[in-house]
Amino acid sequence: MAGLEVVVRPVIFPDIRPRARQSLPPQDDPDKGFAVIKGQPAQGVGISYSMSISSSKAHQQETERRVDVVRVYQEEEDGTINKQNYVDMEVANRITTTEPGPEGAAPRAPGDPSTPWNQVSEIEKKAYYKKYEEWEEEEKRKMKLLEQDKIIKAKKGG
Amino acid sequence: MPAGLPYFAWIDASETTFGPEHMRWDEAVFSFTLSQEEGDPASLTAVVRRPVNVAGDAIGLLGPGRKIWAWFALDCGPGLVKFRGRLVGIPTSIFEELVTLEFVARPVDVVAQKEALANTLRVLPYYDEAVIDPQRRNDPDVVLEGYTAIWHYDRETHVVTVSDEILGEDGLVEFDGASEDGKVLYDGLGLTLSSGPLARVDVSAEYTWTQQARGSVDLTDYLVSQWPAGWTPGTIIFSASDWPKRGAGLGDGWEVVDASAEDQYSFEVSSRSGGSTNTVKYAGEEAHTTTFTETVSGLSTPSPIPVASFLGVISDEIKVGYAEDGDGNRYQSSYSRNVSRGSTLIVQQEIKATLVAGYEAARQCTERVSFSLFADVQPILTDPEDGEAMRIDDIRSVNLTEGGMIGDPRRRSYIATERGNQSLEHLIAYARAHLMKRARAVQIAFAPKLSRMVEVSLRKNVFLVEPRVGEALGKIVGYSITLDGSDGRVNCEVRIGCTIGRGGSAVASGGEPLYCSIDYAGPDYQQFTGRTVLFDASVGYAPPDAQPNDDGINFLGPIAVGDVIEVPLVVTVGPDEDDPTGQPPWPDSITETDAEARAEWIKQFMNQFKIKATFKLKSMTRDFSTDYEIEVTDVQIPVGIDLEAA
Known about the structure:
heterodimer, A: mainly beta, 1 helix, B: mainly beta, 4 domains, 12-stranded mixed β-sheet, 8-stranded mixed β-sheet, 32 strands
């Protein structure tokens, strides 16, 4: 009968078991798996100090003086004017001076006012004062204008 | 009707119940053999006169329209031995006067019946799907591996059942050797030994699962307490930009899940300037002017105390101008001095930091269970201790996590759980089944009287008393009834398989609790020593205590930092391994190229402040394996026959 019928006696086949894992489990490597936290807490910070000091000194030279020539009379104690007694005086109403420009600067080209003043070898400055007609009448009562705006050139080296 | 008269009726497949109408002779039975072996359906070999039609011509037994089912019955006196079977195969000797027909009582729905029955048998501990390949779990034959049972096919109803191979379910057929029907014939008695019982079964099995868990551990206090402290309490010397960010790896299965770092200092540089100008006028004109300016930069507050400072390149430039006055005399017309000095301050950043490490464990855990189960059997060939042993070492589980058997996948041990104990019991059942089956080493064949054959089935045991045998108790493993047409004699044979155990039963032991009295906490709460739990009356075992050979992390409870640190934190301050060794000489002269040299010098100088912290968290991806040697009792096997007495 066995040849004609399926043998139904239980047969436990070896492949009923779950398959084994294909590879061996990896061993824990004592040199691996470390957590590493590293960094540079130090920092270089640049700081600075700077100081600047400068000084300049001007040596002005008078080159021209414009004056009003006046005669100043004596005033008596009672207020009268004694025209017999007097002095003649030159009262400057403009003084022109020059001072050296920056070292190495070129002389101003003649007739070229466009050159900046601080780039020429000689810097000209003018100072103005009250002219005769601007004086107080009380002052002028004791004076007489002899010559107005007389130009007096300074001598070189003077 | 006289005993020994056979009936033969061709039937339809639907005639499943035997009735008086089937007591007929559709074929003239010349001889027959009705037999059934354990685990097989019953079969009938009938030699009948060659069927002919009304004209006397031979007809084909397998022709279309012919019935292939038959009821066969044999009158045994007290009752009928009945057989319902299906014609199989091609009749032999078909051209002779007598043809041989072969029938088998195999159910047509055997597969469905076995599957339905198998479903009821898939119960722990006899069937453990943990050790069955998922592709094979639907195989009904697989379910019996833990049972000492075998399929049984009823020769009449074709109902498929299972029958225990040691103790039949349908009772006992007694042959007392004294009563008239209790005697067996003198001839036909035989005793054979099988290859011998199994003395021992060595079992080793592997249970694997993926230990899965996820969570987090706050490492902040641990790191801060062992880190170089900053000036401000609670701070450490480090830079926020270098502190690990969320998602950064921290080892196998670890990463940063939450982190914060706040620099305590901005290191912003602010500067202040001051100065004065002194002008002397003459005649309304500036005649002499002196100007002084100073700029000083420094760190904005708050700022740390520098750990070092280095002077940078100094620049000091003096200029003197000359001119000629109107008299042509040379005079000093201008003077200027510009001094600048750079410095580099080395400062260290401090941070307030937090760091929470998250883990996602996926660790392959394996428990190797082994034990040797001995059978307490009578010596048949030699001492059982030296007898045949079977090794079962191919048992391995599916991934218990995927299968769900582990329950909580965070567990460290499976075999010590209730489910694990059931797996262990399954192994014992499996090994026990082998021992029991092989302990049925003696087979006795005898010839009962025909009248007793009605009682015989493969679901019964026989108790036999026979002077030559003595007493024997065994499971019926086969029977046959044969009629030899040449002499008209009916021969009956019954074969029983007798176990050669010593009787006895396993004894349970409560053991000694290791923690507290059983009354206080119950028997399932704590571990015991010397405890024996009975699988059944034949064998017991000591449930193993969980002793996982792992790294000690218990994911089922709260996890502290100390639980996960494998290599403690080491913080080193100084150059990295790949930094240049040695410090270059300090450049003394003040030149432009020295500025670069100084920068390089300072860069290397700062290497000594580098911080490197290393620690190792326990791997969340490694594998573990634990061996368990299980203590089991000997398997107590029933006494089927006492060989020592015989």
